[in-house]
Amino acid sequence: SQAVARYAVRLGDDSLILSHRLSEWVSRAPELEEDVALGNIALDLLGHARSFLSYAGLAWGKTEDDLAYFREEEEFRSLHLVEQPNGHFGVTIARQLMVSIYQDLLYAGLTGSTDNTLAAISAKASKEVAYHRDHAVQWTLRLGLGTEESARRMRHALEILWPYVNELFLDEPLHDELGDAGVRPSALKAAWEREIAAVLEEAGLEVPQTRAALCKGRQGEHSEHLGYILAEMQVLARKHPGATW
Amino acid sequence: SQAVARYAVRLGDDSLILSHRLSEWVSRAPELEEDVALGNIALDLLGHARSFLSYAGLAWGKTEDDLAYFREEEEFRSLHLVEQPNGHFGVTIARQLMVSIYQDLLYAGLTGSTDNTLAAISAKASKEVAYHRDHAVQWTLRLGLGTEESARRMRHALEILWPYVNELFLDEPLHDELGDAGVRPSALKAAWEREIAAVLEEAGLEVPQTRAALCKGRQGEHSEHLGYILAEMQVLARKHPGATW
Amino acid sequence: QAGLERFNALIAEDSRIEPRDWMPEAYRKTLTRQISQHAHSEIIGMQPEANWITRAPSLKRKAILIAKVQDEAGHGLYLYSAAETLGTPREVLNEQLLSGKAKYSSIFNYPALSWADMGAIGWLVDGAAIANQVPLCRASYGPYGRAMVRICKEESFHQRQGFEILLELAHGTEAQKRMAQDAINRFYEPALMMFGPPDGDSPNSQQSMEWKIKRFSNDELRQRFVGMIAEQVKVLGLTLPDPELRFDEEAGRWVHKDLDWDEFKAVIAGNGPCNAQRLERRREAHENGAWVREAAAAYAAKKAQKAQVA
Amino acid sequence: QAGLERFNALIAEDSRIEPRDWMPEAYRKTLTRQISQHAHSEIIGMQPEANWITRAPSLKRKAILIAKVQDEAGHGLYLYSAAETLGTPREVLNEQLLSGKAKYSSIFNYPALSWADMGAIGWLVDGAAIANQVPLCRASYGPYGRAMVRICKEESFHQRQGFEILLELAHGTEAQKRMAQDAINRFYEPALMMFGPPDGDSPNSQQSMEWKIKRFSNDELRQRFVGMIAEQVKVLGLTLPDPELRFDEEAGRWVHKDLDWDEFKAVIAGNGPCNAQRLERRREAHENGAWVREAAAAYAAKKAQKAQVA
Question: Which segments of chain B does DSSP mark as H helices, in order?
Answer without folding.
Answer: 2-23, 32-58, 64-69, 80-83, 89-110, 116-145, 148-161, 173-178, 189-202, 226-239
